[in-house]
């Protein structure tokens, strides 16, 4: 499966805040946050769903990836989404799995780095939910 997704009883804002703290505890920083409904509204398009995209990075992991194979940089930084499910109306936190992305490059060195990063991010998501 290309993604890892969990459900939480928190609001989107609460989940983002908890996720930022949990990621920090695992040496990941949030480089950028995109509030999609707000950005679309700037263009005159209304989206009646709360959806955030967080781009996260662990500098040590990024350095390992880029020094082993620069093509790994195509998949940096990692993306985590936090949104209100249109099906359940609950907040979900989802991770695009680094192992799936790095697997496209077919470099065993990158795959092992991706496994470590993915494990840490899943742990951070579990702690945040």
From TrEMBL:
Task: Tell me which domain of life the UniProt entry assigns to the organism this sequence originates from.
Answer: Bacteria
| Entry-linked InterPro entries | DUF302, TT1751-like_sf, UCP021774
Q: Which residues form the DUF302 domain?
A: 39-98
Pfam families in the cross-refs: DUF302 (PF03625)
Provide the transmembrane region boundaries: none
Tell me the PANTHER family matching this sequence.
SLR5037 PROTEIN
Protein name as it appears in the record: DUF302 domain-containing protein
Q: Give the species this sequence originates from.
A: Paludifilum halophilum
The organism that produces this protein has a lineage beginning with: Bacteria, Bacillati, Bacillota, Bacilli, Bacillales
């Amino acid at each position: 499966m290309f993604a890892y997704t969990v459900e939480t009883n928190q609001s989107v804002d609460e989940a983002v805040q908890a996720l930022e703290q949990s990621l920090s505890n695992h040496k990941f920083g949030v480089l950028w946050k995109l509030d999609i409904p707000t950005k679309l509204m700037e263009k005159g398009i209304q989206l009646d769903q709360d959806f955030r995209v967080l781009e996260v990075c662990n500098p040590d992991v990024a350095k390992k990836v880029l020094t082993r194979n620069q093509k790994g940089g195509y998949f940096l930084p990692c993306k985590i989404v936090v949104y209100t499910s249109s099906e359940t109306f609950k907040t979900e936190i989802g991770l695009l799995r680094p192992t799936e992305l790095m697997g496209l490059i077919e470099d065993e060195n990158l795959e092992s780095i991706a496994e470590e990063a993915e494990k840490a991010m899943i742990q951070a998501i579990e702690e945040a939910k």
